[in-house]
From TrEMBL:
SUPFAM superfamilies: Nucleotide-diphospho-sugar transferases. The lineage of its organism: Bacteria, Pseudomonadati, Pseudomonadota, Betaproteobacteria, Burkholderiales. Keywords: Nucleotidyltransferase, Transferase. PANTHER family: HAD SUPERFAMILY MEMBERS CMAS AND KDSC, N-ACYLNEURAMINATE CYTIDYLYLTRANSFERASE-RELATED. This is Pseudaminic acid cytidylyltransferase. Pfam families: CTP_transf_3.
C-alpha cells in the first residue's frame, strides 16, 4: 500500500488553528489533501490529528481519519517521524494490507503539487533510497550569514568567508516543508531523513514558503495568487 499521511494537530501557537484557517478560500489543510488526491499516487490518504474539527474538515475534503492521535504525540515537542511511524503502525495493524511506501505531506503546504508528489515517488523508486525529500536552495550563501550580538552589533557566523566571493561558495539547500516520501521500514525504524539515505526532489524557490507567522501567511497568499494567474 502507498499511504499519504498528513499530520495536522490542533495546537498551533503562532497562528491559531493554522491547519484549517482559510488560505485563498479553502482551509489550509484542503490544499494538501487535494494535491495528494490529484497525484493518483496513493491507495489511501489519511490525516493524523487530535482535533475533532480538523478531522471533520479533513473528511469533508476527501481524506480518511481512521484514528484520533494521542496527546503524547500531539505536543509542541513531538517530531514528525514518530507521528508518521504511529500512523503506519496503526494502518499495518488495522488495514487490509501492509504499508510499503508512505509520504508525509505537511498540512500547511499550499504550494505542494500533484506533479511534485509523483516526482517524489519516482525518485524514491528509481534511486532505491530510504526517503525522497522536497528541497530548495537558499537564496543567499549561508557561509556569509551574520548574527546580531547581545549588545546590538553585527558579526559573521563564518568570518573566514568575509572576502570569499559568493560564486565560490558551495550552494546550500533546505527542507522545502512540503513532503517526504519514504519506505515504511525507514519511518518505522527512525532512519534519519537528513542523511545519505535520502534523495532530493528539487523545487524552485518561488514555490516554497514557510508559514509560521502572520507575515509569512500574507506573503504566501500573495505568491499563491500570482502563481495561479500564470505558468509555474
Amino acid at each position: 500500500m502507498k499511504l499519504a499521511i498528513i499530520p495536522a494537530r490542533g495546537g498551533s501557537k503562532r497562528i491559531p488553528r493554522k491547519n484549517i484557517k482559510l488560505f485563498c478560500g479553502k482551509p489550509m489543510l484542503a490544499w494538501s489533501i487535494e494535491a495528494a488526491r490529484d497525484s493518483a499516487c496513493f491507495d489511501r490518504i489519511i490525516v493524523s490529528t487530535d482535533d475533532a474539527e480538523i478531522a471533520a474538515i479533513a473528511r469533508q475534503f476527501g481524506a480518511d481519519v481512521p484514528f484520533t492521535r494521542s496527546p503524547a504525540l500531539s505536543d509542541d515537542h513531538t517530531g514528525v517521524t514518530p507521528v508518521i511511524a504511529h500512523a503506519i503502525g496503526w494502518m499495518n495493524a488495522n488495514g487490509p494490507q501492509p504499508v510499503e511506501l508512505a509520504c508525509c505531506i505537511y498540512a500547511t503546504a499550499p504550494f505542494v503539487s500533484a506533479t511534485d508528489l509523483r516526482r517524489g515517488l519516482d525518485t524514491l523508486v528509481q534511486e532505491k533510497c530510504d526517503y525522497a525529500l522536497a528541497v530548495t536552495s537558499f537564496p543567499f550563501p549561508i557561509q556569509r550569514a551574520i548574527r546580531l550580538t547581545a549588545n546590538r552589533r553585527i558579526e559573521m557566523f563564518r568570518p573566514e568567508h568575509f572576502t570569499t566571493r559568493s560564486q565560490d561558495l558551495e550552494e546550500a539547500w533546505h527542507d522545502a516543508g512540503q513532503f517526504c516520501w519514504g519506505k515504511a521500514s525507514a519511518w518505522l525504524t527512525d532512519v534519519p531523513v537528513f542523511a545519505q539515505g535520502a534523495a532530493p526532489v528539487v523545487l524552485p524557490r518561488h514555490r516554497v514558503q514557510d508559514i509560521d507567522t502572520p507575515e509569512d501567511w500574507q506573503r504566501a497568499e500573495l505568491m499563491f495568487q500570482l502563481l495561479a494567474r500564470g505558468p509555474q
